[in-house]
Amino acid sequence: MMDTLFEDNIGRNLKTLNNLVEKKLNNDLRSLGVSLTGTQMSVMMWLHNNQGVPLTQKQIETELKLSHPTTRGINKRLVEAGLIETQVVAEDKRQIQLQLTPKGRDLLDSYSHQLKMKVDAVEAKMLTGIDANTQTILLSSIRTMIRNME
Fold it and tell me: MF terms per GO, please (predicted)?
């Protein structure tokens, strides 16, 4: 009985799906020779997509729905790898501003096509057997669930 207690629980199944997608993407990154996690890449891509806009650690936390300690750890590792740099915001010393380094931009530029192909392949595999209309409903439902939990 205990094995199936949460079998039909949507949250548990979404977490399992997230774990599987994250594991696949992390393995795909390693196969490209990129020793970063999917979450680290998400932070870098968010910075890349918003170049020229000063972004704070708090904005990254909010956008990616990460905890403060998780974001700090990710940022620390990315700084140590020379992929991002941080600076304290002059007007508010509590805020940390993030930006890609030239090395970080080069990494994303070098691998962007391959990364997109890997992400698209994982998405296609995940959605195999689900028609376009159901995919639209599923995405809308997941977005609603996210808003409900914020």
Answer: DNA-binding transcription factor activity
Q: Compute the CA torsion angle 36, 42, 48, 50 (nearest 10 deg).
A: -160
- Provide the angle, in degrees to the nearest 10, between the axes of the packed helices 68-80 and 57-64: 120
Q: b/e per residue, 29-52, with b = 16+ CB within 10 A?
A: beeeebebbbbbbbbbeebbebee
Residue 53 DSSP label: S
- What is the pLDDT averaged over residues 100-125? 92
Using DSSP's 3-state secondary structure scheme, residue 98 falls into strand
**74: alpha, beta or left, given left = phi > 0 and alpha = psi -120 to 50?**
alpha
Residues 60-110 have pLDDT tens digits of 999 998 999 999 999 999 999 999 999 988 888 888 899 999 999 999 999
Q: What is the pLDDT of residue 5?
A: 65
Domain annotation for the chain: domains and CATH numbers: 33-117 (1.10.10.10)
Could you tell me if 104 and 113 are in contact, meaning their C-beta atoms sit under 8 angstroms apart?
no
d(CA 23, CA 10): 20
